[in-house]
Amino acid sequence: MCTITALKSQKRAKNRVNVFLDGQFAFGMALQKAHDLNVGQALSASDVARLRAVDEAEQAHEKALRFLAHRPRSEAEIRKRMVRQGFSKEVVQAVLQRLQAAKLTDDAAFAAFWVENRSTFRPRGRRALRVELRQKGLSDEVIEAVLEDVDEPSDARRAVGQKAARLRGLSMRERRCKLRAFLARRGFEYAIISDVIDELMAEQ
């Protein structure tokens, strides 16, 4: 057994406390998780191990929240990030379950966000979107469901319109060639590329 001899607020993180056992620093804890600890309290080795595990899970959760603050993430992205930061698989799984319960992760919602964002700012065809979503660790079921609603011709028109404005000084043949290659790189199907470019050339 050991005894808590001091509980001190951390200077750089006021929401955390340092726990001292028998006069020596032992571990840090989130303030909200340390409310049951008192100076003079005796702790067994299993108590200390449990408290450290609780703090590891809390730190992992806080890091996951910071990771999610920038933009929505797939569960696979969160898992990969946390494993890379050194958290155990058990802790990562517990954090993911906590995020799911709070409705902070949802792969279907993430897929919809990703596709909508692409459509608005950098339109892509289903082929390219499928590759990107797989790289995010999404299941084929989730991917195919979200791609059903993609209006590929409309996205191709928007993409080619953004590009065509920068190619006005070229001949029609050069413009066709560059626009075809551009849309192909964006993952649009050949038939859609041909139709969209024909429409654009006819308008001009």
Describe the structure.
60% of the residues lie in helices and 11% in strands. It contains 9 helices and 4 strands, in the order ββββααααααααα. With 204 residues, the protein is an alpha+beta fold. Strands 3-2-1-4 form a 4-stranded antiparallel beta sheet, covered by helices on one side. Helix 2 runs antiparallel to helix 3 (89-101), helix 7 (152-164) crosses helix 8 (172-185) and helix 7 crosses helix 9 (190-203). The longest helix has 26 residues, at 45-70. The radius of gyration is 26 Å and the shape is elongated. Strand 1 and strand 2 (16-21) form a beta hairpin.
Note the gap between the termini.
84 Å
Mean pLDDT: 91
Radius of gyration, CA atoms, in whole angstroms: 26 Å
What structural class do the secondary elements suggest? Answer: alpha+beta
Largest sheet: 4 strands, antiparallel
How large a portion of the residues is in β-strands, by DSSP E? 5-15%
* Widest β-sheet, arrangement of strands: 3-2-1-4
Helix run count: 9
Number of strands: 4
Sum up the overall morphology in one term.
Answer: elongated
Helicity, in percent? 55-70%
